[in-house]
Structures are given as structure tokens and as C-alpha cells.
Amino acid sequence: MKIIVGSKNPNKVEAVREVFTELSPNDLEVVGIEVDSNINDQPITMEETIQGAINRAKNAYQDCDFSVGIEGGLMEVPHSKSGYMQFEACVLFDGSDCYLGLTGLFAIPTHIIETIKKEGINLSHAFLKHGHTDSEYIGHDQGVIGIFTKGKINRKEFTKQAVEMMLIHFNNKEIFEM
Description:
Elements: E1 2-5, H1 10-23, E2 29-32, H2 46-60, E3 66-76, E4 84-93, E5 98-102, E6 106-107, H3 110-119, H4 123-129, H5 143-148, H6 155-171, H7 173-176
Parallel strand pairs: 1-2, 1-3
Antiparallel strand pairs: 3-4, 4-5, 4-6
Helix pairs in contact: 1-6
């Protein structure tokens, strides 16, 4: 089985590889390629984030059994301190249908949200700008989730949650089609 991930981010590629290795340990090939998400660099709605994952999955579909798009984004959440929380969307595309999974949510500080909105930069760059990380691409390292959980949950583990949630729909198609 060949799966193409619409990103070269090692956390996204490894999350897909680890989850699918559990399902299909033999004859599995997972490859990451750069594709365009066709959305803003930092999505700030659930709809835009999911659309980015769909676009990545569809743009990566070439000479494979499945393609996967993973997009991290922000969404408005009532009663959260800053009004926004972070999550990830995972979409598997089989050439005709898309299957969606989401992670849980975690809070993002107000000063980070304000910087993202004012300057049009992404979450990684906002964390770098405010001195919360030395990594320009925190999402390729431990991720913001790794900073906040002090390493208890890293970006790859967080991303695996979205992949696992996507498989609920994919592995139970007959129930969803009732």
C-alpha cells in the first residue's frame, strides 16, 4: 500500500506511517511531498483548516492508493481565554471520497492570537517572535503542544490523534452510509 502525505513535515509523515503500520505492517510505503494547501499560511477557522487538509490530500493524490492531508489551524472557541484554540485536521483521500478526523483542542494565548491577526504570520513564527521557542519551524520539532505540555505530548503524537480519528470514518464506511 502506498500513501502520499501532502507535506514533508516529518511529524506529519511519521504520524501517518506509525498509524498505518499498525493496520498494514507489510508492504507499506509512506512518502511526504510538498503540495499547496491553497489556504492562508495560518488558518484561523475550522472550515479553512479542514479545507486546507482536503486540498493537501487531493493535491498529493498521484500514483498511490491513498493520500493524506494534515493541517494545523486555529478556531474560535467560546469561553476560551483568547477566544481561539489550536487543533489539527486529517483527511484521507482514496481518489473519490474524503475521510476526516480532528484532534482535541488546546488553548493559545491572547498575545499570540493578536500577533497572528495583526501581522499575518503563522503560529510558529508568532511563538518565535515572542521568544517562546528558538525554532523557526516548531511544527517540525516538538510543536506548540510540546512546549505547552513540557514534552508530554509532541507534535507527532498530537497529529496521530487526527489520523486515528479519521480512521473511525474510513474503517466504518458501511455504518456511515446507512
